[in-house]
Amino acid sequence: MTTGSGPQGVPSEGGTSGMRASHRDRDQVVEILQVAAGDGRLTATELDQRLDAALSARTLGELKELTADLPSEGLPPQPREVVRIDQRFGDVSRTGRWLVPRRMEIRLMFCDMKLDFTEALITQNTLDLDLDLRIGGNLHIITRPGILVDPDGLTLSRGDIKIRPTTDPDAPTILHIRLSGQARGDIIARPPRRPISALRGKQQRSIES
Q1: What's the rounded Cα separation, in Å, for the pair 18 and 134?
Q2: Among residues 144, 174, 179, 183, which one has the fewest Cβ atoms lying within 10 Å of its Cβ?
Q3: In the chain, what is the greatest distance between 2 CA atoms, to the nearest angstrom?
Q4: Residue 44 and residue 36: Cα distance in Å, rounded?
Q5: pTM for this one?
Q6: How far apart are CA 175 and CA 168, in angstroms?
């Protein structure tokens, strides 16, 4: 039996239907139900019944049953479960407005990769990065306020790990990036560099004060 995704991004029958649902999974289904009720697809009674079922659902399969007969137009995009990248030589990057998946498996050799989260679309609060950084494989992570990078699950046999704080350390957490696997290259996580114009403006204000 194959495993796919329903129109709302909730996995259909298959290997993931029995997976435990998260708070975010329940919230997404609640949003689907509320949009459907606003469009007149569900009565008030049906909405109440399905909301109660969604909030008490334990698995993704139970959530899918509540949305199987509803369209997905106007709903936020759903992230992919896994994105796999196997790159040798050259450079690879994810920049601009890209949809952050739930998990990334990254294998690099003689290659630099940049993951830029400054404009990324984040729809869940965790991202698991499973790394296999071989000789010459380096990873650069560009963060923004609210993004935490946790290297505790990573085995480093050579190279360096440098994690620099964001410009607003008190910002509420929007994404927890958990690193695991092994690395023989460098890993750098930092906020974006300030534009030259901003630095010049700061210098000018210092001169005038």
Answers
A1: 35
A2: 174
A3: 71
A4: 11
A5: 0.63
A6: 14
Phi, psi of 64 (to 5 degrees): -60, -40
C-alpha distance from residue 77 to each of 73, 74, 124 (Å): 10, 9, 11
Kindly report, residue by residue over 177-197, the tens digit of the pLDDT: 999 999 999 999 999 987 544
DSSP letters, the chain, are ----B-TTS-B-SSTTTTSBPPHHHHHHHHHHHHHHHHTTSS-HHHHHHHHHHHHH--BHHHHHHHHTTS--TTPPPPPPSEEEEEEESSEEEE-SS-B--SEEEEEEESEEEEEE-SS-B--SSEEEEEEEE-TTEEEEEE--TTEEEEEEEEEESSS-EEEPPPS-TTSPPSEEEEEEEEESS-EEEEPPPPPHHHHHHHHHHHHH-
Give the model confidence (pLDDT) of 23-67 as tens digits. 878 888 888 888 888 778 889 899 999 999 999 999 888 988 998
C-alpha 31/C-alpha 33 separation (Å) is 5
> Tokens 């369209």 sit at which residue?
71
Residue with the two structure tokens 């890209």: 98
* Distance between CA atoms of residues 16 and 6, nearest Å: 12
Residue 108 CA to residue 88 CA, distance in Å, equals 6
Give the C-alpha separation, 99 to 160, whole Å.
28
